[in-house]
Amino acid sequence: MYVGIEIDSSLIHSIKANELEHYKKVALSNNERHASIIKRKIKESFVFKDDGIIEVKPIEDTWFPNVKCHVFLSHSHNDENKALVLAGFLKEKCDVDVFVDSCIWGYSNDLLKLIDDYFCQTRIGHYDYKLRNISTTQVHLILNMALTKMINHTECFMFMKTNNSIFKDKNVFIKQTESAWICDELLIASIIARRSKEVHRKEFRVGHSFSINESYHGFPKFIYDLSFMDLQSLLCDELLDIAISSNEEYYGDDNVSRAERFLDLLYKEIGLEEMKNING
């Protein structure tokens, strides 16, 4: 990861209504290429052995493989359509590949169900509570490790800040969320070692790849503190302008791809390149 940026969702209001569905389809089509490969690998290779051992690496490699993308987009599950529109827009306008985990890695519950059905069911067909706790923890840890690797391998981390992802107090965003996964992704992005964009682009060019049922009492909300958040802020309107500018100013330089041109202008807009020059 080179830089972390938070954006709002105003892009949706900046794009014509008849284009929203088009960009969503572009994103789905782009991500489906990866998802179809994952589905095939799962169907072909995933079996449980009878030795009482589950090896984690084959599961991670098959269900949550690293995917070659420029941007990791962190977002609320309720903002998936907005995330897809943004991903499709950046792909079509700037050839930027955006990782939307729900489109590619939307199988953690399927994996958990397989493990639970095989190892956690009692003889009368019920699930053992203690065993279910263990299986859930294991699957979530595997997903957490995969997220860490994916964020590390993408050049730019983007967080979509909306009413669904961050709490508001009197119309002012406060650094709290009820999403454990958003908290996890932001924490990873805040502490992971930064790598230069040159290293990321070299790896990219050579192909280095990498619902709860409601309970009787109503399930409580777990609130996670996000005071560690320290991302560069950018309005989605500004992001749209940068994307259009990068497309207009791209002349087919053999040394700079369209995606890299967009990312360079993005970093310039948030003052990152100027800070880098000042710091030597």
Uncertain runs are 210-219
What summary fits the major beta sheet? 5 strands, parallel
Helical percentage: 40-55%
Number of helices: 12
Radius of gyration: 20 Å
Strand content is 5-15%
| Strands in their spatial order, largest beta sheet | 3-2-4-1-9
What is the molecular shape? globular
Distance between the termini: 20 Å
SSE ordering: EHHHEHEHHHEEEEHHEEHHH
Extended strand count: 9
- Helix/sheet category: alpha/beta
Average pLDDT figure:
82
Describe the protein:
There is one protein chain. The chain has twelve helices and nine strands. The chain is 54% helix and 10% strand. The longest helix is centred in the N-terminal third of the chain and has 29 residues. Helix 2 packs across helix 4, helix 6 packs antiparallel against helix 7 and helix 7 crosses helix 8. It has 280 residues and is an alpha/beta fold. The strands form three sheets. It has a five-stranded parallel sheet with strand order 3-2-4-1-9. Strands 5-6 form a two-stranded antiparallel sheet. It has a two-stranded antiparallel ribbon with strand order 7-8. The relative contact order is 0.18.
